[in-house]
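During the reporting period, we have paired protein sequences with backbone structure tokens. One record among many follows, to show the layout:
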Amino acid sequence: MQALDLSKTGTVVTLQIRDNDVVIGTIEIGHGSLRWFPPKGRKPQSYTWPQFATMMNEQRAGVR
């Protein structure tokens, strides 16, 4: 496995997220933010890292 340098502007890691054999979305992780692409190419949702951290903390606490 190769180590990636995400500290460089413009560097992105793309991960396809699956539930068993069904693609449920794609996430692009970069230096300043991440983007979630729902299945079938719909418009992505963008989050800064602080927004993503808040969202994950709320999910963990059961807040919606």
